[in-house]
Amino acid sequence: MKVLKFGGTSVGTPESLLCVKRIVETVETPIIVVVSALGGVTDQLICLSQEAQTGDVAYVAQLAALHQRHKEMVQALITSDRQTELLGRVQAHFDELGSILHGVSLIQDLTRKTADAIVAYGERISSLIVAALIDGARHLDSRDLITTVQQEGKNVVDFETTNAHIRNAFATLPAVTVMGGFISRDGETQRTTNLGRGGSDYTAAILAAALEAEVLEIWTDVDGFMTADPRVIPTAFTIDELSYAEATELCNFGAKVVYPPTIYPVCAKEIPILIRNTFNPAGKQSIIKKEAAKSDRLIRGISSVNDTALVTVSGMAMVGVVGVNHRIFSALAKEGVSVFMVAQTASETSTSLCVTPNDVERAAQLLDEEFAQEIAAGAMNPAEWRVGLATVAVVGENLRQHTGTVGKLFSVLGRNGIGVCAVALGALETSVSFVVARDQLKKALNVLHDSFFLADYEELNLFLCGTGTVGGQLLEQLAAQADHLREQHGLKINLVGLTGQRHALYDAEGIDLANCRRQLAESTTPGGVERMMEEISRMNIFNSVFVDCTASAEVSTHYERLLAQNVNIVTANKLAASGEYDTYRRLKVMARDRGVKFHFETNVGAGLPIINTINDLTASGDRVLSIEAVLSGTLNYVFSTLSADVPLSQAVHLAQENGYSEPDPRIDLCGMDVVRKLTILARESGYRVNTTDIEQQLFLPAAMFEGTLNDFWAQLPNFDAEFEAQRARLAAKGKCWRFVAEWRNGKGRVGLKEIVQGHPLYHLEGSNNIVCLTTERYDAPMLIQGYGAGAEVTAAGVFADIMRVANI
User: Fold this and answer.
1) Could you read off the pLDDT of 507-523 as tens digits, one per residue?
2) pLDDT given for residue 94 in this prediction
3) Of 141, 515, 698, 799, which sees the most CB atoms within 10 A?
4) 278: which strand partners?
5) Is 677 among the catalytic positions?
6) Residue 624's beta-bridge partner residues?
7) 370: left (phi > 0), else alpha (psi -120 to 50), else beta?
């Protein structure tokens, strides 16, 4: 014998009820079918009763609409020869309901007895319709079987009486019996009662346990018990098996697949529970039983209570005093305040309790009354309470068998800037529960699910600011490597934000990398960094990385705000790292303290591993003594291109035409870019330095950097002869010019320098960069050399920094 329960979504429409009929009629063994009210009807009945209580006659029209819905359901499903009788019974129920609501409206008073009677009509009517729909089905009124007694203001099942009624009613088993769930009857007064929200599950479990059914099947609108709420976590998937203990924890903390009290009756008889999808009977399903098959994952599932309040009792009088917690829980229990999580300090100076927001003020008041004497004496503090919170439970029996799981959990939360208000870890170690701010809930669920269930790959969510040459190249490289990263490195990169100066795109599910440039051009969303900052805060996505491919001072001013939100930063923009030393240092410390990444390798040498090499040397105890480097690809191109046939003005033109210089080459020729780069290298080597501390030697008169760009181009040829004469002089001596950045003895300078043959800088060609590092360990300079300019290599360096965020 089996018990099948169908929830409101399963009996909400004619189409869904036909699914129920097909499922039931394919079962060969005798079955009991327990049904909820039609989808949404229970809430409507509650609203009707509340409106009637105020004397608002609007309930009359709503009641008529509700009656019409049930009539239409009958007319759509039941054959004409049986419709008249069933419609008459439905009419009689609505007449009774209308009379009760009229009485409530007249006296404008709604007692609990009356409210229970009103809300019961949902299941009373739906079960009649389902019984008529299924061929040969017998209908029973659940109130004749499920008996309750009053305990501390709640309806509690009288199992002895209930089990006797059930066994008598099912002394012989018809093929199909249909009953309404949720509803019951008080054993003493015989008034209609109910088993609370989700009570239809409980009804089914009571029946299954009393009759020792072979299985209890809960039919709902999802493919079994999911690893998380699929409405919040699109990547959630079905849990094949879980234990009674695991299911209880998940249900207690918000998983709405099964009503928590459902599990106990069948658990005691070791009756398995199957969770199946009414709309996909052949799909995946979950089984809940005493001992679930071992899982290779650390946890089974994640659930949450979306609206939590926290009330805290504290004070030195609690330390070592026997009975304080007894007083706390007794005071709350007497008034029907339910506590679903407790967190207590080891010193016993405070106890925090999770309750519903509706109960929190009353709970604080009750506790203040209970400890009034201690509060008056100053030995305890008045109860404090907070709202706007949410509770998350991470559940799995593997938790107690694997060390480090809890550490990983809180490490992941911390790296994503998710603060925890209270924590509870059960002694059985099957669950970890914690409280977070409600606006952090979605982010917390996503990052935990990604970390514990999507172990095949890690996700990074990118916000890219800047779609020019470097940003454009980066987008192409990301698109080309996406599949390889997923398959070979377990990394899934989602572009969730993209902005230029005029247009922007935002999509938490990911922007198509292959078409994003076209979509950006067609977008009507305003661009700009300010809008992107707003979107980053609004979307609040886990594992976020802000990628700056601009040279904008405005963009760099937002780094501190991003780090404060635990957003990783990867930047090709050198203005932050070379700006005021205190700002640079603050950003570095913030990133370290918050466990997020602040990478700017491409600030010096484009894709060359210069900064990371210095970091590795200093972290291992080495000390950088001096730096000698060519750090401008533009200037190196200019001075390595100079020849008898290529004068200075032509070399500068060639640098611009080949994309090695800025559109205004004076930005490169002034050497300020090299000053910034040397400042960054010196800082990363452990020196406190600002750009103003670097000696800057211009090779063109200062007047050349004033006026218009056209003026510059017109005057530049005037210096060709002088530079050619000097170049020829150097060549005759076996020397050449290089624009060199030097750091030595705690001082820095940049400028043209004569380089002799045999020096590492002498044979440097094109737009290449070179860095010579002399350290305490490397008294013979360590050389790092390669392309130091160009959009492609710079984008590749940015890409490499993104990989470092993912620790690849």
Assistant:
1) 998 999 999 999 999 99
2) 97
3) 799
4) none
5) yes
6) 775
7) alpha
